[in-house]
Amino acid sequence: MRNTKIIRHDWTKKEIEEIYNQPLLELVYQAAALHREWHNAGEIQVCTLLSVKTGGCPEDCSYCGQAARYHTDIKVQSLLPTETVIAHAKKAKETGSSRFCMAAAWREVRNNRDFDRIIEMVKGVNDLGLEVCCTLGMLTEEQAVRLEEAGLHAYNHNLDTSEEYYDEIISTRKFDNRINTIQNVRKAGITVCSGGIIGLGETHKDRISMLLTLATMEKHPESVPVNALARVKGTPLENNPKVDIWDMVRMIATARIVMPSSVVRLSAGRIEMTEVEQAWCFMAGANSIFTGERETLLVTPNPGVTEDMQMFQNLGLVPMIKKEKVSSCTH
Ligand code: SF4
Prior knowledge:
Its cofactor is [2Fe-2S] cluster; [4Fe-4S] cluster. The chain has eleven helices and twelve strands. By secondary structure, it is of the alpha/beta class. Helix 8 (204-215) runs parallel beside helix 9. The longest helix has 15 residues, at 24-38. It is globular, with a radius of gyration of 18 Å. Iron/sulfur cluster binds at residues 57, 59, 61, 64, 66-67, 105, 137, 331.
């Protein structure tokens, strides 16, 4: 049993492989025990994700319905007015969220009027007492500093998949671009939210490799979203098989063991999971979920807040209240 309060950054691929490949129940048991050493297992952080600019993205992430090049049913929406975003944030707070994440379908942040408006939104949401997170694409260090000064708590930038499999999924940027942005976020003193997606056609080795990259960072991401591919009609991955729940549980449990202090987020794909399946993910160490208004997570379906609160009640869970410098989100 790895019941220890030590955070390691020197994991080897072999060690993570051994953890990941254990019999599932043994893996879940270890993860659950470690989870209880580091976290209050009865608390789940609820994060609301709002798409503040939707669709029309020049990138070609093959899982994403917001890429302009794919013919999907997603309705393109330019940057929302600041007042609208603040109204959404107020509502999120009222319904139990302690964190509010704003997502814009951009390749990268540009120093223009839209970025000035994002800065205003960050200030406004921060003033409400919510942890504020953004996911806006690639970011320079200077832009990260501006966001930090406005009160940004976390920046989401997922690795998506392993370095080895990256080119199969995205051709318009490189894995190193992701790492650079994460480093810029760190240098600015913003917490990092970074995880990935399973179900893209990657192998177990790719999943282990992605976890290795995250778990050997100088500082672990404070938040690690684990997403199951949400298959969007019109994208190259629309016909991929549904992610097996035990693969999700295995991934979450391994993430929990190798990054014990991080918040592990059960992210996209919850709509296709039963309450029992989600309970397994919480047992394996997930301690955060996304909610989205109108029962969507960005542009894909997600359980509604009422349904989630009922699940919490059934499982004896409560929403985590805002903590200083605990983190999160997904793009
Ligand atoms: S995941 Fe983000 S960067 Fe990739 S296409 Fe979608 S919106 Fe653009």
